[in-house]
Amino acid sequence: MAPQYDKPDTRVHDALKRIGPLPVLGGTVSRIRTLANDPNGTTTDLVQVIESDEAFSANLLRYANSAAHARPIRARTIRQAVTLLGRRALVRIALEAETYRFLERFPGGAHLSRGQLHVHAVTVAAYSATAADLRGAQTDSAHLAGLLHDVGKLLMPAAFGVVPLEEIAAQAPFGSPRAELERKILGLDHAQAGSLLVGLSEPADEVTRAIAYHHGGPTGLAVPSDETACVIVGDVLAHMITGADPDRELLAIALDRLGATPDLLDEVAEKAGIAPTGAVGDLAEAVGRLEAVAHTDDLTGLHNRRSWIETVRRELASGTEGALLVCDVDGFKNVNESHGHRAGDLVLTEVARVLARHGVAGRLGGDEFGVWVREGQDAGRRAADAIMQDVSESLPVELVTGENPLGITVGLASTPPGGAEVMELLEAADRELYAAKPGGGRRTTR
After folding, report:
1. pTM recorded for the entire structure
2. Backbone angles phi, psi at 406, to 5 degrees
3. pLDDT tier at 385 (50, 70, 90 boundaries)?
4. What residue ranges define each of the domains in the chain, with the CATH number in brackets?
5. Residue 240 in contact with residue 269, Cβ under 8 Å?
């Protein structure tokens, strides 16, 4: 749990009551997070939730059409945006969009405390998530903690007034020196204040802990978790690209916690692909500086979602006739629960090996894959039949038989006369896939 100070200031508790739970963790975003983590949730469910919130829908499309997320494909509908992004990316983008909008418009507090809080937040989130990816920490927790790490700067003026915070910010604008001065003068730093504010909405201990300790906690030197270390790395990098000096002692402790050397900073900066931020521009421009994504899925070695969609798009643009298959592993959740995630990973890599033999294969996310088959619908049907047969023969017999057998459902969409866009085919195949599942069918075609 987040640390508790011995003598909590009643002004802080009063301010917490006035501010209440953060809107960025409730409403539409909360529903999206719940659905995205529900193995039984569907794309249609997500689309309905998003489309019920017009303001959020508009914001999501701006993100989906930014250079960072959909280059060069533009999503014209919410369904296309959801399909293009994938569930995991959708949750992150939903959080970023709402946090950015909230921090940009926050109506009160010392201007020196706020600074460019909205731009800094999404930058630190991207760096924190990248560090977690590279060092095996909980990526989603590191991302959320990085995104909200400085929200305590909103609580502090509400509790102690604007003038004391401006005086502190004038002496120490950012980083550990500022947190230390806050503790000395007010008995509380903005990191701990942020954990209290986020704790009203977010039950995950690793998130509130990382926020509370991103400046080292009461001693200035404590790094209690890998996720905390990732947020420290992200925060240091975000300040370094603006020319600020890092807290080298705390950074060294964070790197040691991650079993890393200072080379990690260069690796994170290169992989995240964030350029130094200048003047605040359009939201899409800010997002365009975020996370550069590689072309290969780390687990399976196939194309990742973006790379596969772009590959199919080029095929269609060249006039190639073909069929697009969406393949979903049936019974996969039971494998993870009964045999562990390592067994689940082995299943996914074996399925990927099978799919790669039958066309241009990519991992769309989780246990869902895409395969592009040239030469039209007949070739696609033959590939779908062969995939189902090969998967049943390649997986261990104890997994393809029994009460919850492993299998694969395939949805197929072929190119119509005159051609088609990749997102249209993907949507059509996705619909056929889910239509096949309730009746127990293994493949439907379109």
Report:
1. 0.57
2. -75, 145
3. very high
4. 10-287 (1.10.3210.10), 305-444 (3.30.70.270)
5. no
